[in-house]
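Example 370.
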Amino acid sequence: MSVASRAPEYIRAIRPYQPGKPISELAREMGMPESGIVKLASNENPLGMSPAARQAIVDALAEVARYPDGNGFALKAVLSARYGVKPEQIVLGNGSNDILELVASSFLRLGDAAVFSQHAFAVYPLATNAAGARCVEVPAVAYGHDLDAMAAAIDGDTRVVFVANPNNPTGTFLPGEALEAFLRKVPADVLVVLDEAYTEYLAPEQCYDAIAWLTHFPNLLISRTFSKAYGLAGLRVGYAFAHPDVADLMNRVRQPFNVSSLALVAAEAALGDQEFIARSADLNRRGMAQISVALDELGLEWIPSAGNFLTFRAGKAAAVDAALLRQGVIVRPIAGYGMPEWLRVTIGLPEENLRFIDALRAALAETRAG
Ligand SMILES: *Cc1c(COP(=O)(O)O)cnc(C)c1O
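Predicted structure in complex with pyridoxal-5'-phosphate:
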């Protein structure tokens, strides 16, 4: 009997995460120069990162031989000052992916269940399965979360509920009142993970204050990231706000140095440059309009999105994706999310959006002809 076959059955059953194709990989496969490739596949910020973050990284390079501050004192201090939470309510993660895994390893075991929506972020089932717990996937309504059905799906085994707002990959958005009403329905001993990875992109009229709810709902955890609007995806840093008891448990389980020194200083500097965030959100709004108008002109159905990406029905999505790749444009197929006819495109710079639109027009002509 092999070593691998002796691993727990629930580990062997895990389907690996399918990331967006890296630029270097497509360049290798197609023999294309990397400079000719447009990647709109992973919801990264097309403006890159704040110049303040870049400077902080350069300044910190000399100290890379030293371990980082395992408690992230300085980053927690700026998060605490900015958002009015106590440092003991904060957990820092190696990306918010790490936060989601820390939730699973702190709160889920064999026999427990986690509830989440159909078409929700792929890491929820991954983290749940890795802990040996059971996934309860609740059918979506209009590609978004059905909060009433999710509340009804909670039973005695449920320890965690994951809610993504906006959701990835569909971009659907739940208003604050709906979330608050949901929190009132969830039993006090079930942790609600509110994943706000794209919160910086919300329109002013969509904004709600989940942090204020922490006072009334000690079973709420808010998860956020520096990977998306802050443009630090490659550094891996995210954070959670929760009740101090919840944060304390997760801080015991996490690796002692789970956030690197460069990530810590970059995140701290990035938080201080809100002008960059405003500029990124503005660029996103204009790109969203540019791409949605073009999709309308092409006669394609798309889902209104509150994030920095747009999901559209391409029909023969795998063939359209292949034709886009041949033109050096990387988007994200989402068959793994139960949406085999759909593709997700990240909003890029105006010229990148144009490259995508032109390539999509050609890809559709090619696949409809063939
Ligand atoms: C991108 C994303 C994350 C996490 O990304 P990290 O880089 O690990 O911070 C979490 N949740 C959702 C919904 C996402 O789209």
